[in-house]
Amino acid sequence: MSTRDIILTGDRPTGPLHIGHYVGSLANRVVLQNTCTQFVMIADVQALTDNYEHPEKVHDNVFEVACDYLAVGIDPTKTTIFIQSMIPALAELTMYYMNLVTVARVQRNPTVKTEIKQKAFGEGIPVGFMVYPISQAADITAFKANLVPVGEDQLPMIEQTNEIVRTFNRLYQTDTLVEAKALVPKCARLSGIDGQAKMSKSLGNAIYLKDSVDELAKKIQKMYTDPGHLKVQDPGKIEGNTVFEYLDVFGVDVQKVTELKEQYQRGGLGDMVVKKYLLEQLEILIAPMRARRQEYAKDRAQVMKMLHEGTTLANQVAQQTLYDVKKAMHLLY
Amino acid sequence: MSTRDIILTGDRPTGPLHIGHYVGSLANRVVLQNTCTQFVMIADVQALTDNYEHPEKVHDNVFEVACDYLAVGIDPTKTTIFIQSMIPALAELTMYYMNLVTVARVQRNPTVKTEIKQKAFGEGIPVGFMVYPISQAADITAFKANLVPVGEDQLPMIEQTNEIVRTFNRLYQTDTLVEAKALVPKCARLSGIDGQAKMSKSLGNAIYLKDSVDELAKKIQKMYTDPGHLKVQDPGKIEGNTVFEYLDVFGVDVQKVTELKEQYQRGGLGDMVVKKYLLEQLEILIAPMRARRQEYAKDRAQVMKMLHEGTTLANQVAQQTLYDVKKAMHLLY
């Protein structure tokens, strides 16, 4: 028996991944894969709960996200990358767990409540969307994950999962399901280039890992700085200045960033100069990723083969859990 | 291409089947299997939605129900009998369909509303129970069933299924899912032996197909007749008299039943005599079933083999539908 931690994490394939994803989760995965048993799920089924009208978008982004993973250094020999819809056990576990949660309980889930407000479903809330915390519990428990990297806003999801785990184990007199701990990343959420609190595809304020140098330069050019800093010689603010927020995160030379901040606050440093420096710093990170990504994107067959191999392995693990679950429920025939 | 009708039907394995099941559905299945492609599902997953605290009961009754099927003459060479929990595609289809139905819509389902009132869930309504009409849509559509035998009270389930079919086909520009028609049996519901409107295990008023002659005799002895018919020479009522209701259904000799009714209404015919006659008539039906059932029940391995074979075939059909569904949704990788 290994005592390594088991991690389940992943992304909804609704668009290519951006540097906010990198800072918030991808970079951690590259580190964690060396010490943990890591499963990374491309959550196409979950993505459909609020994209059911555009499944082709979800389909296409499975490949994009896989390329992003490989580009940032998630290594398929260390991390099991798989496609959610190809793991039937996840749907089956969801069916059994749905009996252990009341309608009132899912409707109380704070994350779901917030998301429902944000999404403004036209014709009413789809059952699939309301049920997705239960589906997430299936994802987590299927791999017996004890660590789940999530943002603060997703903590209620882990609570819901652990409630299901406890109810299941108590009701069916077993210890087959494992409670999970949230692994909240130290790095706060990265703002969008418009200075909005959240970088996201839907807000159109994201820098993608696949952006070309030109796209990157254009986006940095548009970045929100200090709106009061009109002339080079004026003193500028660094609080709320997205360019400096990014430099704090991506600047390789901390000393240099500190000097730039001081000069900017004193006056005499133009936005153009700082932005040019940010572009250089971001390019140190992104250029090699972009190059790797282009190589992978050229060989679709190879990327899909990697996904199929990961999915085969993930299926073995999830099928074993489903077997244990059915056994505890006396559902083997 | 066959133009045979395709039927999906089945039972929740929560107890052995009774003569109410026989009259309302089993007898029809024995006939329909000769002209239709018939799938009979032992709905253990659905049974769990309101029996999740007693999965062992559900497990044990899968075998009981299978024996009942074989005993009444459902022929596994003509009918595909299968276990719901062993068909992963049903859970997977449910996941996709859940996105096409709003929470408000399932909460409006009249059948579910009525059943929720009857069942009085202690800690609130389980999500699985609220969702089961969607799961039923998965069952029906997985087999492309165009005919579904249901009681009047289950008509909203077929409506819900057809709504999902239409939404799916429209949204994903396909004709892969098939609308179903309800096949409402001519025979009304059989009353319980206590004269209650519904024969059911939970009301303790059922005559089981597996009852011994002694059990049958005892139950008929207790049957509700005309409470005002105290002496043999008194005139008796046949309206609401369960013994005569059963004789109308199970009496082989219609002429003789008519004579008995007339004599009972005139006076001079005791309940004991009519009940003895009913026992004889029921035994004509049940004795051979009981004998066959005992043979099957002795050979558990053989019955389970039949179920596994049916399940294998059902899986092939359901997997094909799942493939078609995923193809329409661009979810093949």
What brief labels describe this structure?
mainly alpha; Rossmann fold; 2 domains; 5 strands; 3-stranded parallel β-sheet; 7% strand; two-stranded parallel ribbon; 333 residues; homodimer; Tyrosyl-Transfer RNA Synthetase
Q: How far apart lie the N and C ends of chain A?
A: 29 Å
Order of the strands making up the biggest sheet of chain A: 1-2-3
Largest sheet of chain A: 3 strands, parallel
Quaternary organization:
homodimer
The gyration radius over C-alpha positions of chain A equals 22 Å
What portion of residues of chain A belong to β-strands? 5-15%
Anisotropy-based shape of chain A: elongated
What is the number of independent domains of chain A?
2
What is the CATH class name of the largest domain in chain A? Alpha Beta
CATH superfamily of the largest domain in chain A: HUPs
CATH topology category name of the largest domain in chain A: Rossmann fold
Structural class of chain A: mainly alpha
The number of helical runs of chain A is 13
Low-confidence stretches of chain A: none
